[in-house]
Amino acid sequence: MNNPRNIFIASALMLVLFMQIIYGIPLPMNYVFLIVATGFVFMKIGEGCKTNLGCILLLCATMLSIVGNDIPQFFKPWPRFLLFALVMISCSPMLSGPGINKVHRQINMGGLWACAIITLWSFVAYFTGQGQYISGFVNGYMGVTGHPNFLGFYAMVTMVALASLFFRCTNMKERIIIGSCWAACIIVLLVCASRSATGLGLVGSIVAAYLRLQKDKAKQMRLYMLGVCAAIMCWPVLAPYADTMMKKEMNFDDGGEAAIAATRGAIWDLRYQELAQSPLIGIGAYSCDTTLPNADIFYDATNGSIELGSSYLGLLAQCGWLGFIAFLLIVVPVTWKTFVYATRQRTPYAQFLFPILVVCILHMFFEGYLMTAGAIQCVVVWMLIGACDQCDTVADYPVAWEKEDPITPEQYVYWREHIAEDGDKR
To answer: Helix 376-388 vs helix 77-90: angle between axes, to the nearest 10 degrees?
Structure first.
């Protein structure tokens, strides 16, 4: 059971069931996935197992913020913390070792496949009339998911992953398939009207192209010029799909009360006020100050959900500087390591993951899901961080599951520089 293929298939299947609402099943799939994934990790704990100090400090800071504050019970801080602890154990770099690392890689690839399946499923559902819409001051398309912002995140991640895979293609058939799926992601992003995800999807695709062609400036320029020309030529075709996004922008510009209340500026102001109250340990994880003016607009007392507006401001407000510094101790070393291996060693594994990591880090400025383990975005981000942490031990990656032990960066660099006829083609 605990082999790469089974872990990959189980992860992809459970995450697809978690993401979609069309064929919902009467099970809390987030709990099911995290319990199963944690079981996979625990079965691989053995010799060589290590712990990550930043992850432990983040969990400690989260607990301290809950213990040190009087949090209304409807926010359910302890159950939410336990679920987040499962995310850290099963997905993050909190635990590492030869066996655990392989589990993390398979779970991460399963998560990326799940994002792709949901995105392309929603694309087909849009044209067959099976997709769902959310009503409001604009009718945003949410496909087979529960919200347009969810679909936008899945499409953004898929779009960047496909951009990296495009440069791995070895023949025209593969390029047509990957390129068509990439174009489908653009349409999905436009119809779900997620502006930040659309922009970051394009940015991530450019980063992926740069990393693959960084040694060939002429190819870079030709590709960018071709991209600009293609965008100009295709805009008349794409413009109708951007109608929802344009209506969304016009509604914000009209200055209506609903539009103003929905702006992130109002939410961010609440987070600044909460941080000022308790800068060291925050006001309590998974909670907000319900006494602030207009705070009731951005939380739901029936289920304890909160609109944070930003992962980083939410972390600062809820867990204070202790929690934020602990997070930096995790993500900064991982990001730097992945950047070094993507740009200097130029290993395929780092070049594949780094653009996705970049767009997720930037996306969290606009969406608050970093510690919300009940949201699939939280799971995907921590899976990605856990996988990126291994870029100094793994050089290559499979399209699906690992059929054999991957080569190390040192082995790959030696192959590229001494054996391959052209080190930039692999």
So the answer is: 30
CB atoms near residue 297 (< 10 Å): 12
Taking only the tens place, the pLDDT of each residue in 191-224 is 888 888 999 999 999 999 889 887 766 666 776 7
Task: Report whether pLDDT(33) > 80.
Answer: yes
What mean pLDDT is reported for the chain? 86
- Alpha carbon 421 to chain centroid, angstroms: 36
Residue pair 327/381 in contact (Cβ under 8 Å)? The answer is no
Contacts of 192 (CB under 8 A, 6+ apart): 140, 141, 142, 143, 148, 149, 151, 152, 155, 244
User: What values do phi and psi take at 97, rounded to 5?
Assistant: 165, 165
Instruction: Taking each helix axis as running N to C, give the angle between helix 376-388 and helix 311-343, from 0 to 180 degrees, rounded to the nearest 10.
Output: 30
Residue 381 CA to its chain's centroid (Å): 4
CA 164 to mean position of chain CA atoms? 16
**DSSP-assigned beta bridge partners for residue 50:** 96
- Whether residue 392 contacts residue 334, with contact meaning beta carbons closer than 8 Å, is answered with no
Quickly list DSSP for 121-150: HHHHHHHHT--EEE-SSS-EEEETSS-HHH
The amino acid occupying position 164 is S
Determine contact, residues 19/31, Cβ cutoff 8 Å: no
The tokens for 229 are 């020309």
CA atoms within 13 A on the CB side of 362: 18
Dist. CA 15–CA 87, nearest whole Å: 13
Q: Measured between alpha carbons, how far is 272 from 294 in angstroms, rounded to an integer?
A: 14
Integer angstrom CA distances of residue 317 from 72, 309, 375: 16, 11, 19
pLDDT of residue 423: 46
Q: Measured between alpha carbons, how far is 319 from 280 in angstroms, rounded to an integer?
A: 8
Residues in the chain: 426
d(CA 55, CA 389): 12
Predicted TM-score of the model (pTM): 0.91
pLDDT band at 241; cut points 50, 70, 90: low
